[in-house]
Every structure is written in structure tokens, then in C-alpha cells.
Task: structure prediction
Amino acid sequence: MWLSSELMFFAGLFAMYFTLRAQVPEEWAEQTELLNVPFALANTTILVLSSFTAQAGVFAAERYQRRREGSFWNIRGWGMHEWFVLTFIMGSVFVAGQVYEYALLVSEGLTISSSPYGSVFYLTTGFHGLHVVGGLIAMLFVLGRSFAAKKFGTHEATTTIVVSYYWHFVDVVWIALFAVIYLVQ
Result:
């Protein structure tokens, strides 16, 4: 139910984006030239790949495998901890990439108050970024709970699965945002 309400929230942001884009198309033509599509694509790739690492963590949790078995370099033996830490790192890199992109765009004069395009760009990508940060906090919660648990069982595995649902949702929303903002210029 909660993910459905989140979906409606992002649907509203998409509606705002398309409405303003239809009202001032010349603004979009001018402002989208400032976007660094290759950088955004690389950042998007990191976020999308983090869904795969999160899912690998879920598979480990479903096997009740909290930690790695064997060498660190034996990725097939990784447990939920290793996969979720890698997912956390990748999500953090994505957020850092967004902050870097914001800094570049602000230096080019594109701010939240500079134009309708700036407002919509920062609102949509910023709210998404806040959701990514929320997912990162949830991962820390899952990892902390897992470390604190005497026995890694169904409760910990279920928590891992629920957080992964949210993470996958955030990734899918970003794919749609990326397509709309960076590809359909």
C-alpha cells in the first residue's frame, strides 16, 4: 500500500514535468543542453546495477546466509551482509553523482528558482534522491538488525526482502525519470 502511495506521488511529479514542458517548450530546448547525458547514464548504470546486488543479498538472506563463506574474493560465497554493503556503496555513489551534477548545473546558472525547467528538474530528481537516501538508511537498519540478531532467521530475511522491494521501486522510478529528463529532450 505504501509503495502505491509513493507511485502516486511520483506520478504527480511526472504530471508536473509534462505540464510545464508543454507550456514552455522553448525553455526545455535551451535548458536540456546543460545536461551531461553520458555522466547521468554512468550514474544510472550504477544505480540499476545496485538492484542486482540488492537482489543477490535477498537470495543470500533466503538461504539464511548472513555472512560470506570462504574468501572475500569468492563472490559466490557472499552473504547478505556483503551484498547489502555493496548495494549501499553503489547507492551512495549514485547520490554523490547527483550532488556533483547539481553543483555543475548551478555553476551553469540552472537553479531551482532560475526557470520552470530548473524547478521541475530539481524537484523531481531531488525527491528521488531523498528516496534513495531513505533506502540507504533502511539498508543500514537491515544490516544493524542482522548484526544484532543472535540467529539469522525468517524475520531478518523478510526485512531484507521488504527493503529490496523499496530499492527496486526507487530504481524503476529513476529509469523512468532518466528516460524522460535525459533521453526525451
About this structure: The chain has one domain: 37-183. The chain has a mean pLDDT of 88.
